[in-house]
Amino acid sequence: MIKHLYTFAALSGFCSVACGAFGSHALSDILEPRMLAAFKTGVQYQMFHSLALLATLLVMEVRGQNLQLTLSCYSFAAGIIFFSGSLYLLALTGLNWIGPVTPFGGLLLLLAWVLLAVGIWQASSAD
Question: What is the chain's mean pLDDT, rounded?
Fold first, then answer.
């Protein structure tokens, strides 16, 4: 399981850099400023949370695995997909119906941070 999450985090980081370059070079003259800003927000959040996922996995390696840390990892991964993915789709397609997916992804990212805090607290309490 952890191997798959490490792979997801690495590939997500790669995709974030690729999307950032694509947005800066190919989309800057095509998208309206509001949609370009949404795309860039997706890129930033994807990178931040890819790194957070990697950090959470490292915490699990050092402190041990528990349910909250595991759920945090999956919430980070799902949040990246739903939050950044929906912003990419919105910016590139203009499909407004995808908009409500973004806050759901944001909630998953918030949940991941809370689970991370609880998981670290519980792992530290074992000392």
Answer: 94
Cβ atoms < 10 Å from Cβ of 73: 29
> Could you identify the residue written with the tokens 């309206």?
32
* Cα–chain center distance at 98: 17
Contact of 84 with 45, CB cutoff 8 Å: yes
Whole-model pTM: value is: 0.94
33 C-beta neighbours (distance < 10 Å), count: 8
Cβ contacts of residue 112 below 8 Å, gap of 6+? 49, 52, 56, 72, 73, 75, 76, 79
How many CB atoms sit inside 10 A of residue 78's CB? Answer: 16
